[in-house]
Design brief:
The protein contains 6 helices and 13 strands. The chain is of the alpha/beta class and 209 residues long.
Amino acid sequence: MKKNITIIDYGSGNVLSAKQSFAKVIKTNNYNAEVNISGDPDIIKQSTHVVLPGQGAFETCISGLKSTSGMIQAINEFAIEKKKPFFGICVGMQLLADNSEENGNHNGLGWISGTIKKLPSKQLKLPHMGWNSVNLVRGNFKIKPKETDYYFVHSYYFDCNNRENILAKTNYGISFPSIINKENIYGLQFHPEKSSDQGLDIIKSFIEL
């Protein structure tokens, strides 16, 4: 069966870079799949895999999703009801939380229990920007070796309420979740599309779900 991967376009996120990375993985591995960018809820519902990118402030991103008519309903139907593979990147991962403390208190999708909190910055610069290690603690994402560097740009982190939702951790002042998961839903705090071959390996793992 052909896989139809949709990257959600809601006005926030590096959608073109993400599409190029997915297209490269599809071509390299000769997958029977295609990747497209769309802000149409009906296209989301018809997809086999959905990617939620995100950059900037949490409030701006969640407002962008809510302002797209039918989008929240479409992704809830896709990920929660039908339990199809869903992939959040950076702020797209943070939107999966119950709420965020960035510039006030804002409700998220509430798919994975937790709160978005600011990284401590006593001796470290914010945002946390550049390459850092991702330490796999459980799960089946193909991170080789077990500790590998990926590219980060963020000032807030996902404080998970449940340990079983944490697949990998990264240290920057504190140890924070850098890959989270609940059933069919995955989130990455780093940018796989900016993380060279190891980032493409993670995209490959998601396509194969």
